[in-house]
Write a structure and sequence with these properties.
CATH superfamily: P-loop containing nucleotide triphosphate hydrolases
Order of helices and strands: EEEHEEHEHHHEHEEEHHHEEH
Mean pLDDT: 93
GO molecular function: ATP binding; ATP hydrolysis activity
Radius of gyration: 21 Å
Strand content: 15-25%
CATH architecture: 3-Layer(aba) Sandwich
Pfam family, one: ABC_tran
Shape: globular
Helix content: 25-40%
Structural class: alpha/beta
Number of strands: 12
Domain ABC transporter: 6-258
CATH class: Alpha Beta
Number of domains: 1
Oligomer: single chain
Distance between the termini: 45 Å
Protein name: Dipeptide/oligopeptide/nickel ABC transporter ATP-binding protein
Number of helices: 10
Organism: Paenibacillus rhizosphaerae
Bound molecules: adenosine-5'-triphosphate
Length: 336
């Protein structure tokens, strides 16, 4: 029997602006992550990916606020826990989060081992300094990271090594889920590959059980995650297997995201390269109907008027008024 490690239902979270307006950056998100599965979340900048990650961690600090819906981590509703319970029982132990640019946030005056000692002081106070050191060396060696790094200061490490170190530190307590927000952006291709290999090693060696990988580059997820969800203007617009999402997208936005790739991944040569015309709607004033209609080449009156329900077809979900036959016919005609 498969268990769900993460269950999110009807989640709405918002930023409160200085003018007291509510900007719903996560606007009715539902999804499930099964134990042992990896999930990619893709979408253009500003669609709500990072806000979703913060929300899943229960990191509600103004201006970000919880609106409604539930988040269950291994069956526990995190919204029913106190901030203290979240910090000591969930964060790092059940679910670990690597925010964007985390590698640049390491205190430059501390050696890497100190970050691990601090985590252990909080979660495994019974361990001696020597035991923590041995454990850290063992973990680094298992992950093909030089234990010498443990004695280094952050600024002595290259960008790629710093990022791998941050990931190794964040997963030291063997959390069930790792949420990594743009872990490979700002790295050269070789370092990107090393970071992805590290995350695969963490899964293979069962230091983590599931992974959520956030990126604005949809094709990057092809070799990394089992499933992919695409977000647009605070909503999930499509979810399917990585294969389906990359090679057989249903939602016109997913289709356009695939067409807008800058550096084609291996096996994806031949894709048309084009920017997606227009910009996403301002989340302060989302339009009626489909949020993508303004930029969609197939949009019709119904799209601008009626709210769009999620359709489920053979285990895939997509948020569009049109059926799969109609969409595929349009796409085929466009190619011919
Ligand atoms: N402090 C804030 N106050 C008001 N609105 C905010 C704030 N932070 C973010 N937002 C809005 O929330 C939306 C989602 O932002 P978020 O950072 O989650 O997007 P993202 O998809 O992660 O983008 P990126 O890939 O650039 O990080 C954006 O449209 C942004 O304008």
């Amino acid at each position: 029997m498969t268990t769900n490690i993460l269950e999110v239902s009807g989640l709405k979270t918002y930023y409160k602006t200085r003018l007291k307006e509510k900007v719903f950056a996560v606007d009715g998100v539902d999804f499930v992550l099964e134990d042992g599965k990896t999930l990619g979340i893709a979408g253009e900048s500003g669609c709500g990916k990072s806000t979703l990650a913060l929300s899943l961690m229960g990191f509600y600090f103004p201006p970000l606020h919880y609106g409604s819906g539930s988040i269950q981590i291994h069956g526990r509703d995190i919204m029913k826990l106190s901030k203290e319970q979240l910090r000591t029982q969930i964060s790092g132990r059940e679910i670990a989060y690597i925010p964007q640019a985390a590698m640049n946030a390491l205190n430059p005056t501390l050696r890497i081992i100190r970050f691990i000692e601090d985590i252990m002081k909080e979660h495994r106070p019974e361990l001696t300094k020597k035991q923590v050191w041995d454990m850290a060396v063992d973990r680094f060696e298992t992950l093909n990271l030089s234990p010498k790094v443990l004695r280094s200061y952050p600024n002595e490490l290259s960008g790629g090594m710093k990022q791998r170190t941050v990931i190794a530190i964040s997963t030291i307590l063997n959390p069930k889920v790792l949420i990594a927000d743009e872990p490979t952006s700002a790295l050269d291709v070789t370092s990107q590959k090393a970071v992805i290999k590290l995350m695969k090693d963490l899964l293979d060696k069962q230091f983590i059980r599931s992974l959520v990988f956030i990126t604005h580059e949809l094709p990057l997820l092809y070799h990394v995650t089992d499933d992919i969800m695409v977000m647009y203007a605070g909503e999930i617009v499509e979810r399917g297997t990585a294969e389906q999402m990359i090679f057989d997208p249903l939602h016109p936005y997913t289709k356009k995201l695939m067409g807008s790739i800058i550096v084609p991944e291996e096996g994806m040569k031949g894709h048309k390269l084009a920017a997606i015309p227009g910009t996403p709607p301002n989340l302060k004033h989302v339009p009626a109907g489909c949020r993508f209609a303004e930029r969609c080449s197939y949009a019709q009156d119904i799209c601008r008027q009626n709210n769009v329900a999620v359709q489920e077809v053979e285990g895939r979900q997509y948020r569009c008024h049109f059926d799969t036959g109609t969409l595929k016919e349009w796409y085929a005609n466009e190619q011919s």
